[in-house]
């Protein structure tokens, strides 16, 4: 089983960026943690972060061509307005779990809408970095079920 962990704009600054909202752990720590959880589960984790919309779209297409089994995606602020990312997810048939570290619903109004959610397999919001691990467990269980 192969799962792609995709992070969008400004998430390369995890640990330094608004730590009162996003915590003090870095993206590297998060990715390493997910890799070790993945190896316990027999899941290969691929991680990619970009601040560029088109690079995220290209990575989603590549995941489809490489037969990735599931995707954990925090699209950052693109969540709220990127129809191009939404269409990219709709164009592939891989389950995508949308993850947000913060509880976007108790923040600014512009964060309440997700244009990604209608094409996502599911959504995890407001559980901090733990949300990524929960997404990994959920995707892995679903993929295992599909293989039977
Ligand atoms: C975020 C929430 C978005 O509104 C914000 O633009 C981010 C991070 C989150 O993980 O809480 O960059 O996706």
UniProtKB/TrEMBL annotation:
The domain of life for this entry's organism is Bacteria
- Name a single GO biological process: quinate catabolic process
Question: Which GO MF terms are attached to this record?
Answer: 3-dehydroquinate dehydratase activity
**Is Cell inner membrane among this UniProt entry's keywords?**
no
Q: What is its EC number?
A: 4.2.1.10
**Record's keyword terms, sorted:** Amino-acid biosynthesis, Aromatic amino acid biosynthesis, Lyase
Chain positions recorded as substrate binding sites: 74, 80, 87, 101-102, 111
Q: What reaction gets catalysed by this protein?
A: 3-dehydroquinate = 3-dehydroshikimate + H2O
Question: What are the positions of the active site?
Answer: 22, 100
Its recorded name reads 3-dehydroquinate dehydratase
Source organism per entry reads: Oikeobacillus pervagus
């Amino acid at each position: 089983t192969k799962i792609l962990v995709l992070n969008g704009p400004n998430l390369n600054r995890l640990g330094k960026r608004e730590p009162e909202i996003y915590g003090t752990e870095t993206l590297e720590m998060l990715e390493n943690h997910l890799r070790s959880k993945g190896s316990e589960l027999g899941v290969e984790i691929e991680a990619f972060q970009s601040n560029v919309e088109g690079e995220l779209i290209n990575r989603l297409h590549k995941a489809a061509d490489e037969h990735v089994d599931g995707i954990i995606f925090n699209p950052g602020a693109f969540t709220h307005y990127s129809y191009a990312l939404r269409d990219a997810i709709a164009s592939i048939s891989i389950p995508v779990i949308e993850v947000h570290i913060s509880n976007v619903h108790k923040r600014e109004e512009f964060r309440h809408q997700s244009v990604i959610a209608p094409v996502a397999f599911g959504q995890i919001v407001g559980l901090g970095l733990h949300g990524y691990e929960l997404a990994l467990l959920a995707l892995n269980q679903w993929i295992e079920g599909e293989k039977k």
